[in-house]
């Protein structure tokens, strides 16, 4: 028979110690599981239900962290879809949802490749932050329409997409807050839409500090024509030698 070592007074048997230890471990496991579920709910609440992209609050936190590093390579984007209502009206909201989901996935890929984040602000409006050196801003922005505007197939239909993009770079506004950069990017986005309405085919418009305080006419911001247009493919409204006329379609 195996020998039994007598226990000294005040000492617990190893089996009792193990049983006692199992109680707090089980409680800890339950607490960790609850914590994980709470964290998942919070993450899900901070994500757009349709596209899975983060919402505005998460993007703001990421953008402010990047700005706090003061690396000078923070690019802020604001964009929305042109004539998105027409897609909903002509093909139904399911088609519109498919377009939003496709644009979200493409924007996510574009920003993730540049160390950034994309978010859906609501409706057909998106925002993003990326890390792009100032000297690379124009070449990088010119790749964005190509990435986002590929047609989306919906059943037997091929839905064409046009995206208006505005951008602001921290190097142009070194002391600007996140909200200021987003406001400047909004000016650029509006300018992109205006140029298209005037007959130009434009890529993203890079707006600067002066544009954020541009006067308004009938509630519309009035940017300076041609000062922050990133050339892209020309339309038939352009002259034969490639110079834009700005005339209507």
Based on the model shown, name its key terms:
flat, 249 residues, 2 domains, five-stranded mixed β-sheet, disordered C terminus
How does this structure look, described?
The chain is α+β, with helices and mostly antiparallel strands and 249 residues long. It has eight helices and nine strands. The strands form three sheets. A five-stranded mixed sheet has the order 2-3-1-6-7. The N and C termini lie far apart (101 Å). The C terminus is likely disordered.
Please write out the topology.
Elements: H1 14-45, H2 56-68, E1 74-81, H3 84-91, H4 93-112, E2 117-122, E3 125-131, H5 137-142, H6 144-148, E4 152-154, E5 157-159, E6 163-169, H7 178-197, E7 205-206, H8 209-212, E8 216-217, E9 220-221
Parallel strand pairs: 6-7
Antiparallel strand pairs: 1-3, 1-6, 2-3, 4-5, 8-9
Helix pairs in contact: 3-4
The top level CATH class name of the largest domain? Alpha Beta
Tally of extended strands? 9
Average pLDDT metric: 78
What would you call the shape?
flat
The CATH level-2 architecture of the largest domain is identified as 2-Layer Sandwich
Count of DSSP helices? 8
Q: CATH-wise, what's the superfamily of the largest domain?
A: Reverse transcriptase/Diguanylate cyclase domain
- Major sheet characteristics: 5 strands, mixed
Summarize this structure briefly.
The protein has helices at residues 14-45, 56-68, 84-91, 93-112, 137-142, 144-148, 178-197, 209-212, and strands at residues 74-81, 117-122, 125-131, 152-154, 157-159, 163-169, 205-206, 216-217, 220-221.
């Amino acid at each position: 028979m195996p020998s039994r070592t007598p226990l000294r007074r005040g000492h617990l048997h190893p089996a009792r110690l193990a049983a006692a230890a199992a109680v707090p471990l089980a409680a800890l496991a339950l607490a960790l599981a609850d914590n994980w579920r709470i964290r998942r709910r919070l993450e899900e609440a901070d994500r757009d239900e349709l596209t899975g992209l983060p919402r505005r609050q998460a993007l703001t936190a990421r953008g402010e962290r990047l700005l706090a590093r003061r690396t000078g390579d923070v690019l802020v984007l604001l964009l929305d879809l042109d004539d998105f209502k027409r897609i909903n009206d002509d093909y139904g909201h399911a088609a519109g949802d498919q377009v939003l989901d496709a644009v979200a996935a493409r924007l996510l890929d574009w920003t993730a490749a540049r160390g950034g984040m994309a978010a859906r602000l609501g409706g057909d409006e998106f925002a993003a932050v990326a890390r792009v050196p100032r000297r690379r801003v124009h070449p990088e922005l010119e790749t964005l329409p190509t990435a986002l505007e590929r047609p989306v197939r919906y059943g037997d239909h091929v839905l064409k997409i046009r995206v208006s993009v505005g951008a602001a770079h921290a190097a142009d506004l070194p002391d600007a807050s996140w909200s200021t950069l987003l406001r400047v990017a909004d000016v650029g986005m509006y300018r992109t839409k205006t140029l298209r309405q005037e007959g130009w085919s434009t890529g993203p418009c890079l707006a600067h500090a002066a544009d954020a305080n541009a006067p308004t006419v009938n509630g519309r911001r009035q940017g300076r024509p041609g000062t922050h247009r990133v050339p892209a493919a020309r339309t038939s409204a352009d002259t034969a030698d490639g110079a834009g006329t700005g005339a209507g379609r």
